[in-house]
Design goal:
mainly alpha; 88 residues; 2 domains
């Protein structure tokens, strides 16, 4: 993990995302084996414009850019290719 954290690319973020997804799918398989019903719901933060965009299925590039811009304007720390393109 230390090697990945020194990289300037998004390797660490990608690794953590893969790791979280893997754990989720392992847990999901285990729950399925217990023969119980699991209700899957995502918890969204009402004060986060990006969370709200995801909640309502706003996922076009323009909609996401607007959500990221709104989050940044509210003082949230946001960054990434969507905002970088605007600043160029």
């Amino acid at each position: 993990m230390d090697i990945l954290s020194k990289e300037k690319d998004d390797w660490l973020t990608a690794w953590q995302s893969w790791e979280e997804d893997s754990v989720f799918f392992c847990m999901e398989g285990w729950f399925d084996s217990l023969n119980i019903e699991i209700k899957k719901e995502m918890e969204y933060f009402d004060d986060c414009p990006v969370c709200q965009a995801m909640k309502f299925g706003l996922n076009s590039p323009d909609e996401l850019k607007a959500a990221f811009r709104a989050a940044k304007d509210k003082g949230f720390y946001v960054s990434g290719p969507l905002l970088d393109e605007e600043e160029e």
